Amino acid sequence: MAPRGPRAIRMPQGSLLMADKQLRAGAAASHITPPLGISLNGGMQDRTAVHIHDELHARCLVLDNGETSLAIVVCDSCMIPQSILNHAKHLAHGHTAIPLDQMLVSATHTHTAPTLGAVFQSEPDPRYGEFLAVRIADGIRRAHHNLAPAEIGWGVGRDETQVFNRRWKMREGLAMLDPFGKPDHVKMNPPVGSPDLVEPAGPIDPEVGVLAVRSREGRPLALLANYSLHYVGNTGPGDVSADYFGAFADRLQQLLSADRLSADNLAPPFVGIMSNGTSGNINNVNFRQAGPAQPPYAQIHFVADRLATEAARVAGQIEYRPWVPLAMRQAKLRLARRSTPKDEVARAKFILSQAKTPVLARVDEVYARETVLLNEYPPFVETIVQALRIGDLGIATSPCETFVETGLAIKSASPLKPTFTIELANDYCGYLPTAEHHQLGGYETWRARSSFLEVDAEAKVRATILEQLKLVAMG
Q: What is the mean pLDDT of residues 90-116?
């Protein structure tokens, strides 16, 4: 058994009301690994799974303080449409009675997981979507079954060495055009070490958020971490992998000496969870200076080790509480789809008519197909955002690949300190650039099924999140 960490905060003497209160927590991890041969998304051309490098999971945490119960789930997926997640939530609710609007389910954004939504030239297999919904629900049910008296704490670490803004301002006069023939003012993922680099077009968020849960005896039960890093990559061709998110969970378990379920230890296994913050314009590449070439997965494990080490350090210093207030609010949003001008639809159809092969290779061809398909989308999308309060900790969710500027603004204005954000939660609505970044252009703003919301969507999402944070902070 792991040694106890810092002393838990005890209730004031004579407080019968507080003495009767008890926090319970349960955690579980469900396998969501697909069969080989399935489509893998994350690129402009489809890929097929030929090897399972490491298993995918839906990592689940359920909290219940006697007044409120809630579930937090992070899945090793690139993105998950709302329809699949709604199905999973209804299945879980039927067995646990956790309210539907008190379940948070997000994707990590690994680019080596099955296609769940049609983006670029990847198409989902509905059988995997059904399987995923059941396995998410199973994970919530198992975590609920594992509920036991617990202590909880939170804190914030920092690692600024593994996050880099991937949108760059380039040398004046350098010609940059988007797939529609219009000028861009920034470039996503420019050549490393290029003399044309001027400066990043935005900041980073180096915070490592930590929510740690342990038994009353001090045994680690679960740890939810949060970091604003798109993903790492450099995996094997055709590999299925949880990327650094999965490697983080494994390494954290080692660092915390968190025993797995065994014949002589009937306690549920520890569950490490890494959620994605606001990383729509953040990745793991230092564009100023090229590093040495590395074999597949080396950088994934390097990043995982650094962040697990920092999360373990924070977990060892926080104060654990035997009861905390819990609150969760959910708000619906109706956001407009960016319009598709008729002349651009006609241009797109002409480009597609000239394509030489069914698998589109040129960027203008890929985006021509996106233009035609997006033109058939409804003019509005309905999605949700959430705000959670766990003690003094705030958690905000976004259904998009959210820019770091939005996350920093939410953290700054939130009445709960600390606050961290979880993106790609409860839905997939593509990239969420700020209005200023829409003016700059660049890949993340190019109109497609991966970036289709109205230019003002970010301001609406951010304002609604902050409204919900204020409400949960009030209790």
A: 98
- CB contact at 8 A, 135 and 183: no
Domain that holds residue 348: 338-374
Domain count, the chain: 2
Cα separation, 98 vs 90, in Å, equals: 10
> Sign of dihedral through CA atoms 421, 109, 293, 309?
positive
Helix, strand, coil distribution of the chain in percent, nearest 5: 30, 30, 45
- Measure the CA–CA gap between 67 and 47, rounded to whole angstroms: 46
Calculate the dihedral angle through the C-alpha atoms of 214, 218, 219, 221, rounding to the nearest 10 degrees. 0
End-to-end CA distance of the chain: 36
Question: Residue 5 above 70 pLDDT?
Answer: no
Shared-domain flag, residues 358 and 406: no
300-344 pLDDT, tens digit per residue, is 999 999 999 999 999 999 999 999 999 999 999 999 999 989 999
Query: Would you say residue 175 lies in a domain?
Result: no
Check residue 132 and give its pLDDT: 98
Over residues 140-148, the mean pLDDT reads 98
